[in-house]
Amino acid sequence: SQLHYRPVKLYDFQPPLEDFRSAVLEGLQRFPKSISPQFLYDKRGSELFDAICTLPEYYLTRTEVQLLQDHANEIATYLGNGALVEFGSGSSQKVRLLLDAAPQVQTYIGLDISRQHLYEACTALAQDYPGLEAIALCTDYTQPLPIAQIPELQNRHTIGFFPGSSIGNLEPAEAVKFLQNAAVLGDLIIGVDLKKPASILEPAYDDAQGISAAFALNLLTRINRELGADFDLSLFTYRARYDETFGRIEMQIVSLAQQTVHIGDAKIRFGNGETLRTEYSYKYTSDEFQMLAMAAGFQPIQVWTDAQQLFNIHYLKR
Ligand code: AVJ
Description:
Helices cover 34% and strands 26% of the residues. It contains ten helices and 14 strands. The strands form three sheets. It has an eight-stranded mixed beta sheet with strand order 1-5-4-3-6-7-14-13, sandwiched between helices. Strands 2-12-9-8 form a four-stranded mixed beta sheet. β3 (83-87), α5 and β4 form a beta-alpha-beta unit. It is globular, with a radius of gyration of 20 Å. The model has no long low-confidence stretch (mean pLDDT 95). The structure holds N,N,N-trimethyl-histidine. N,N,N-trimethyl-histidine binds next to α9 and β12.
């Protein structure tokens, strides 16, 4: 049958995937124990994260979507006829709000480490936006971006898009490095969660239905399945605490007993009450984030905020 959309061009830079086994062993042999949040997103983890995004307590997604809808026309004036590059594009849903308001944007570049998911999301966009040139760029965006090798990015207005407050997973020094790398590309539209009372933040990361807990604890299930470990899920619990000094939510798995877990030949000891950190989620005031952006060489020129002061979308000019 005839194609009714422009085929998606794929640039595959074959980013090396971090080895799950060595990352897990390394993280469990540290003190305090920690494992990178990137490993939370297996099939079940991605489903649980999608469920988190619709929880009543998790205000981030719906607030950001509302901001994008409310200010789409103004954001479109900043986009002009530039090329839109989405970092960690996942299923590329939020960018549709921008594309709907900015028909003059003719090029979309999705950038993700997961080639299959990326390609499918770009294809779905190409189908829904006839005339849009959709490009899939499979690469690790924490590494220097191969822009010299992408003709579609040469000599044109380019705007990065990094929604979801995903930058919150990075420690501030890493966040500056990410922003410096993104600045090579052009301007940046970025979603950032605001500082607020712990009474609002903590339920967002430890909800009444236990979905946030299931999301973190699924990491242990994944380790059991993929690495042949023997975590007893009944001997661990989940906790999310807002550390006001650091301005971050700390998500951790807590051992309910002194115990030894086996991962292949390795023995991992847990003390009673010992923690395994699964994520940080940093929160920034508008001013703090603008300082961070300036440290990375950006000029903050606009910030959109909801009436309840929950969330920011920043426009950063290179
Ligand atoms: C995907 C990093 C933006 O920090 O709000 C939500 C991850 N983890 N609930 C966040 C998360 C548990 C989320 N980010």
